[in-house]
Amino acid sequence: MASSLRQILPRRSILAAPSARAWTSQRCAFAQRRSYAIAAPDAADPKLQAIDLSKLQVQKTTTPKEVMSNNDLVFGRYFTDHMLSLEWTAAEGWMDPRITPYQNLSLDPATCVFHYAFEAFEGMKAYKDKQGNVRLFRPDMNMKRLNRSVARIALPTFDGEKVIELIKKFCQMEERFIPSERGYSLYIRPNMIGTQRTLGVGPPGSALLYVIASPVGPYYPTGFKAISLEATKYAVRAWPGGVGNSKLGANYAPCIVPQMQAASRGFQQNLWLFEDVDPTTGKVEDFVTEVGTMNLFAAIINKDGQKELMTAPLDGTILEGVTRNSVLQLAQERLVPEGWKISERRFHMRELAEAAKEGRMLEVFGSGTAAVVSPVRSIQYNDELVSCGLTADIEAGPITKRFKDWIEGIQYGEEEHPWR
């Protein structure tokens, strides 16, 4: 049946083309009929995970785009010439990888991604060092997280090392789009969607993994400046047993309205809280989780008089950020010898408010791929503005600056490090 599928339908089944529409619907219908007879995809089946790099097909664009100047770049608005894509079916596994000109996808209106949010993605970057070499920053962690995310929503897993090799080839083709100036990079977006045409709810019988890229500058156009947060309780980003630890598109859209509401009150982002009982006191507290789409770190002097850098633990509600992990590892290597305590633990807003009132608050910052680190000036909580340790004339504290310099130094090849 697999061979007959190849004979009936051209390989470019999902990438749009003028002649593609008729056979796209045929293939979707065929996949739908076939899916009734197959079991849910087994994420551990090596046959369904395997990717053959030797069968990579490359089609270069005949209409190359103009490279925009760094000053004109807007985050995520301008894309490179090509895209990387791999199709998957529950019967055949991963098909031949392809690098093709950037183009639209052709999907049936009943495709399951549109109806049941079978979609997961990653965010990673390629950098160019002073010698002109192209670098990826810890791509193995992105691939592991994407595999965890897609497995959570019954999409197929894949050989992460093979996809990294494909992304490297893709970046080589798009090298001219990678800015060489520090603070600029090529933002890479791997994305997987369920492509089966069906209104039935079940594991998708087909999927598409594709990668696009966008040259970007600093995430915040105002530069490296402190932001103000609104502590948010009326809306919840994630909850125990949910999917807050997976990078799913469905996690992001519901957060936009609260962000707009916070912006209308003069705040740049939401600080997501989760109300729960503190087991040590038996009191109901507002526990800190994430900030906007970033992980959150707070640097305080704890009640024992020790400097402590803390972030919420990976309890199933927190996204396991690559930058978060990098901050924690660098903190263990470089701050612990200075006498710091590094903690992954639950902490609540009352603890931060008390630290601020008692002069023990040092700094607060977010961490993420897009912005690396983002300093926080204040948090609005229960009609009270909690100061995060910055004076009016300072945009970022010394701890935040050190992490920014450390991580960017590794990303741009200015420091010898195992993550290079």
What does the model show?
The protein has about 425 residues and is α+β, with helices and mostly antiparallel strands. It has 2 domains: about 1-215, D-amino Acid Aminotransferase, Chain A, domain 1; about 225-410, D-amino Acid Aminotransferase, Chain A, domain 2 (Alpha-Beta Barrel). It is built from 10 helices and 18 strands. The protein has helices at about 1-10, 20-35, 45-50, 110-115, 140-150, 160-175, 255-265, 320-335, 350-355, 400-410; strands at about 55-60, 80-90, 95, 100, 120, 125-130, 135, 185-195, 205-215, 225-230, 270-275, 285-290, 295-300, 305-310, 340-345, 360-370, 370-380, 385. The strands form 2 sheets. Strands 1, 2, 3, 4, 5, 6, 7, 8 and 9 form a 9-stranded mixed β-sheet that branches. Strands 10-11-12-13-16-17 form a 6-stranded mixed beta barrel, surrounded by 4 helices. Strand 12 and strand 13 form a beta hairpin. Helix 5 (about 140-150) crosses helix 6 (about 160-175). The chain is globular. The protein starts with a helix and ends in a 9-residue tail after the last helix.
